Amino acid sequence: MNKIVQINPDQVEDVGSLYAARKKVYPQSVFGTFRRIKWGLMAFCLGVYYLLPFVRWNRGLGAPDQAVLIDLPNSRFYFFFIELWPQEVYYFTGLLIIAALTLFLMNSVGGRIWCGYLCPQTVWTDLFYAVERLIEGDRRERMRKAASADPLKLERISEIMLKHSNWLLIAWWTGGAWVLYFTDAPTLVKELVTFQAPAIAYIWIAILTATTYLLAGFMREQVCVYMCPWPRIQAALTDEWALNVTYRYDRGEKRRSVKKANELRALGLPAGDCVNCYQCVAACPTGIDIRNGPQIDCIQCGLCIDACDNVMKKIGRPTRLIGYDNDINIQRRMAGKPPIYGIVRPRTIIYTALIALVGGIMLYALLTRSLLDINVLHDRNPVAVKLSDGSIRNAYTVRFLNKRGFDRVVTIDVDGPPYAVLHVVGDDSITPDRPMVVLGRDSTTELRVLVTAPSEKNPERSIPIKFRITDIGLGEVAFAIDNFVLP
Amino acid sequence: MAESELDKVSGKTTTGHQWDGIKELNTPLPRWWLITFYATILWAIGYWVVYPAWPLLWSYTRGALNYSTRAAVAVELANLEKIRGDKMIALGAASLADIEKDPALLALARARGKAAFGDNCAPCHGSGGAGAKGYPNLNDDDWLWGGSLDQIVQTIQFGARSGHTKTHEGAMLAFGKDGILKRDEIGTVANYVRSLSGLSTRQGYDVAAGAKIFAENCTSCHGEAGNGNQELGAPNLTDKIWLYGSEEATLIETITNGRAGVMPAWVGRLDPSTIKALAVYVHTLGGGK
């Protein structure tokens, strides 16, 4: 028999809540290499995002002249010289595959550098921190102001209001730029300022203003730590060779004060370079201590590297106590071996090859894609009609696609049933045997095409029939295959 | 009932209920759930007041808004007609020949015609106009009353043997039933008619007699060569298309009992532009002349 375990309620330990309240982060301003790279990338990314809708691209009369335009009402996507139709949505699939593979490649080379430098969440949060710093001061000042129990003075209130209004302005501009991608940008700007724009534009601007303001102003690093799936996926995808932001504890430990370390070195004894100044922690936008090793909160922006380097320069020690490195190299250095930076590894080669392959396929598909196409739908009811002289007629609904920016004339031929005669309903072609039709520019044309063939020449129940269209000017050819059936 | 007490393991109070020493923890419904629940009750009361809700003996409560789905549909239908109106005016103004030459008007007429065809014509002629025994196939090039646009409009407007004063008249007589022809004569002429369109004939039938009977009885409507007459709706007997079938037995049945298929008149039931659209649709099915 099993013994019945009695739980004495008095002995149950109170572990308290499992909920940990967020500690607000007040990152210190930093100067250095990685900060400069971040400023540069931020300027580039935001510049592209905010200004791209205003770039013009001449596509000829009647076509939109916006370089990048998602024209939803007309189902067209324009990207400089490329114009895509809805049925070519697979290019976006290819683009997404390339984006994923590039993310994986970046990860296997430099860990979460996407997170640290390019992710919109990081870029906008960084921008919002910059505004906050400009208005409220640096880390210590902001912490003091936040902790202050004094009643709010006018100066402090105006500071807070200034900060939030600036944030809202940036957020509003972000939402405003978004809608410009969906219609002619200068026209929409004019409509927006005169309050003539469609309601949907204002709604989207409001939505994206709200998300930007909340995500970059309040949620910040919590998005990266709790909401974003990439850190979890990244942790599963990474390997020991990836160069992550790493505290080189082989150099840093044991941590001592500058004075103590210098004394030890004077005696020829080993001393760690880390002086416990906490500058790396102060600079961190997610509020972690990188010296605790790799952790999921680290977005690997490299700001702690800059912070540490500045201190190392001041105390006359070599820089890069924190750097893009990995544990393998730390172990190697501790064993007296030179470090290896294995950027070229099977996985980086495979990712690069896959990116090249998918990119190559997309480029090939784009360069060789047909700008003329034909779809054929056989009449279902009736599938075939017997005529008074005994011949057989099949009717087809034919849709022509002209993706070029000008009208053109095509001729239609059929191969299949012997002695087949073609007739386009409503078409008064001057060449009735080989009907010519005009296809409007950048549009589809639907026509009803009748094919008649003598039944005695066509003993088969079903004969494959090939519709071929030829652009009489350019010689471009497209075809579609269907069946010619007997009643 | 025992007193409510604090449960140390869960940190919750008990309800005071106790069964064989087992105490029940007090876990009330969440506040938000209750508020939502009460809100739905309030909503329902508001709904009763505003919208039709309660069935009465002979009627129902109409609600403060006096809302009716039937009235809403009527309004939507009126709006639809208004939207269609402008386009249909363009269709009504254009001549039949012009409609087929203008791709936009042709597409409109075909779309409108297809919808009207499905609503009105499909029960007899089939959803694709392929017809059935006794109901002409509208896709082919064989027309009882003519296949030009004007003739199709005429047929749709007034029908065939519909009783309308302007309808197509003329019917196949019941040569057998009315005693005009004898049984063996009917068999002979049936074979003769089959031979007109190149079909096989019964061995040893009297060709000369067949020709004679045909000339005496049939040519007034079907013509001397059997080419038919669209004025009278008399089918062409020399082609490959047979409305009721080309078997000897079927022909004997036709000659004996006659035929008089009916198509209703649509004038008055459909507006002129819809009839126009129908005519264009039927004409462009493939067989239009």
Automatic annotation (TrEMBL), chain A:
UniProt keyword Oxidoreductase, yes or no: no
InterPro entries: 4Fe4S_Fe-S-bd, 4Fe4S_Fe_S_CS, Cyt_c_oxidase_cbb3_FixG, Electron_Trans/Redox, FixG_C, Ig-like_fold
Single GO cellular component term: plasma membrane
Pfam families referenced in this protein's UniProt entry, alphabetically: Fer4_18, Fer4_5, FixG_C
Alphabetical UniProt keywords: 4Fe-4S, Electron transport, Iron, Iron-sulfur, Membrane, Metal-binding, Transmembrane, Transmembrane helix, Transport
Coiled-coil regions listed: none
Membrane spanning residue stretches: 39-57, 89-106, 166-183, 195-216, 349-367
Keyword Glycoprotein part of the UniProt annotation: no
Cross-referenced Gene3D superfamilies: Immunoglobulins (2.60.40.10)
Residue intervals of the 4Fe-4S ferredoxin-type domain: 265-293
GO MF, one annotated term: 4 iron, 4 sulfur cluster binding
Protein name: Cytochrome c oxidase accessory protein CcoG
UniProtKB/TrEMBL annotation, chain B:
Signal peptide from the UniProt entry: none
GO CC list: plasma membrane
Assembly description: Component of the cbb3-type cytochrome c oxidase at least composed of FixN, FixO, FixQ and FixP.
Binding positions (heme c 2): 172, 218, 221-222
Metabolic or biological pathway: Energy metabolism; oxidative phosphorylation
Compartmental location: Cell inner membrane
Gene Ontology BP annotations: oxidative phosphorylation; proton transmembrane transport
Family the UniProt entry places it in: Belongs to the CcoP / FixP family.
Textual note on the cofactor: Binds 2 heme C groups per subunit.
Domain Cytochrome c: 108-197, 205-286
Upper classification of the organism: Bacteria, Pseudomonadati, Pseudomonadota, Alphaproteobacteria, Hyphomicrobiales
Binding sites annotated in the UniProt record for heme c 1: 121, 124-125, 263
Cofactor(s) for this UniProt protein: heme c
Name of this chain's protein: Cbb3-type cytochrome c oxidase subunit
One example GO MF annotation: iron ion binding
Assigned keywords, A-Z: Cell inner membrane, Cell membrane, Electron transport, Heme, Hydrogen ion transport, Ion transport, Iron, Membrane, Metal-binding, Oxidoreductase, Repeat, Respiratory chain, Transmembrane, Transmembrane helix, Transport
Gene this chain is encoded by: ccoP
Record function comment: C-type cytochrome. Part of the cbb3-type cytochrome c oxidase complex. FixP subunit is required for transferring electrons from donor cytochrome c via its heme groups to FixO subunit. From there, electrons are shuttled to the catalytic binuclear center of FixN subunit where oxygen reduction takes place. The complex also functions as a proton pump.
Membrane spanning stretches: 32-54
NCBIfam families linked to this entry: ccoP
